[in-house]
Amino acid sequence: MAANVALDALLHEHRRFPPPPELSASANAQPEIYDEAAKDHLAFWEQMAERLDWAERWDHVLDWELPYAKWFVGGKLNAAVNCVDRHVAAGRGDMVAFHWVADAEHDRRDVTYADLHREVCKAANALTELGIQAGDRVAIYMPMIPETVVAMLACARIGAPHTVVFCGFSAEALRGRILDCNCRAVITVDGQFRRGSPAPVKPTVDDAVAACPDVRHVLVVRRTGDEVNWQDGRDHWWHDAVDPQPEEHEAQAFDAEHPLYIMYTSGTTAKPKGILHTTGGYLTHVSATHHYIFDLQPETDVYWCAADIGWVTGHSYIVYGPLANGATSLMYEGTPHPGDKDRWWKLIEEHKVTILYTAPTTIRTFMKWGAQELQRYDLSSLRVLGSVGEPINPEAWIWYHTYVGGGKAPVVDTWWQTETGGILITPLPGITEAKPGAAMRPFPGISADVVDDEGKPVPNGSGGFLVITQPWPGMLRGIWGDDQRYRHTYWSRFDGVYFAGDGAKKDEDGDLWLLGRVDDVMNVSGHRISTAEIEHALVGHPSVAEAAVVGATDAITGQAIVAFVTVRGHVADDDAGGERFVEDLRNHVATAIGPIAKPRQIMITPELPKTRSGKIMRRLLRDIAENRELGDVTTLLDPTITDMIRERMADRAEEHEG
Ligand code: PRX
Question: How far is the CA of 58 from the centre of ligand 1 (A)?
Answer without folding.
Answer: 31
